[in-house]
Amino acid sequence: MGATAPRQILAEEAAALVKDGDFVIVGGNGGTGTPEALIEAVERRFLAGQGPHDLTLFHVTGIGAIHEHGMCHFGHQGLVRRVIGGHYGLQVPFMALIDGNHIEAYNFPQGVMTGLCRAMASGQPGILTHVGLETYMDPRQGTAESGGRMNARTTEQLVDHVRLLDRDWLFYRVPGAPRIALIRGTTADEDGYVTMEHEATTREDLSIAQAVHNAGGTVICQVKRLARRGSLNPHMVKIPGFLIDYIVVEPEQMQTFGTAYDPSRSGETRVPTSSILPDPMSERRVMARRAALELRPGDVVNLGVGVSAMIPNVAAEEGIEDLITLTVEAGVIGGVPGHAREFGTAVNPRAIIDQGYQFDFYDGGGLSCAFLSFAEVDPQGNVNVTKFGNRFAGAGGFIDITQNTRRLVFSGTMTGGGLRIGLAEGGIAIRQEGQMRKFVPAVEQISFSGHLAREKGQEVTFVTERAVFQLEREGVVLTEVAPGARMQEDVLDQMGFQPLVSPAVKPMDARLFRPGPMALRDEFLMKAARPRVAA
Length: 535
Description:
With 535 residues, this protein is of the alpha/beta class. The protein has a 10-stranded mixed β-sheet with strand order 21-18-17-16-22-27-32-33-34-35. Strands 1-15-12-9-2-3-4-5 form an 8-stranded parallel β-sheet, sandwiched between helices. Helix 4 (110-122) runs parallel beside helix 5 and helix 4 crosses helix 9 (355-363). The chain is globular, with a radius of gyration of 23 Å. The chain starts with 6 loop residues before the first strand and ends in a 10-residue tail after the last helix.
């Protein structure tokens, strides 16, 4: 189809187009751009005993709100046979299918996933990249999980190690020919030309539509409203009409899973940053503040989930958000990125580009610095954020970002599981220690290779609520301890290995632990800009 104007149909009719065994690409990023009405209709049809069964699902990154929405609607045995995804932490019911060995499952880096959409569109066999070397993506790791495989049921290797031009590379294979695309926009005209003026991200929906169209499949687009033929501004059109087969109108579609529509997230209006209230004081805010001290004027920054997603709030409170450029891998540039259900979007963005172009910039080493979380750290500086016990969240953009950015700051509490921290005047009070150590003799899975980082000369800092560490050539080095924390009992004794201790170890800045702004702007302006370093 696609040679004529697309048909407007109901969500239930769209769901009936998905057949047993189909390869389905689902658009969306977290809660933005998710064709929720289409996904819900597929679930309803399956639960009514009408199929489909044994689908292969492909989604670039996590789609859901932990226990609801998005991919959570596909969390039923028999509905899915295989999944290839960039992240699973936002879709816990679906992740249970993977943990229970009910489906085959792969996890590839988010930038690789968006690249695979473009490879499928252009008829290429896969993606050749350095992203994933010396992590669990690398088949040379020789484990059941190498090559991004997520459980024992998943045996086919879709990642190959390649030696080319005296360098090591990974080749991620295209997993097949897609038959169905479920994507979303804001407005479609009578010929199917789609704009995204109310979307907070534009993702890779164009590449998805091209890939499915060129494979002879069916492209179904959910939109908010219709427009007259030829009335849309061509600069605003993201997907040409000949790629669209069916249109489903859902007037009540949410901008994100937390917001019906905020015009400041799609660029229609701007709001004063003074309207952005500071996050409550907590150990997480302490870590976000300490991480923010590593910023420099002119930095182009990526922010991960968790504690790192709180850094924009700190920058806004301190009045330095105009001196740096914050970015999110979904394609948002500038503004104040959101977190929780608004992650992937930003208030007052300066630009919103397709996600594939964002990762081209990241993978080429364009970022000044990046802020991410950690779940485990070992003596070599290896970091695990992807697998702990039976929870396998996957990489998202973590591997793309950490392998290609010169300056990295990882944040996380010293221990987990019952940790209770109080904030005293200018310091901390540990009221109850966590049951789980995060600094361990060996990480369960290598999401970030400390060995590769040292070889490449990356600058790496680990920030906790009570101590700060640096990764040096000799290993992990303790450099700061929080006021109120004892170095031996509260730091060293809570680690599964003995770090090096800097002879110049110093207290963490007492301002981190006090409510109210830290008055950083003037001293921030005195810092030297970070020099640009070629990848």
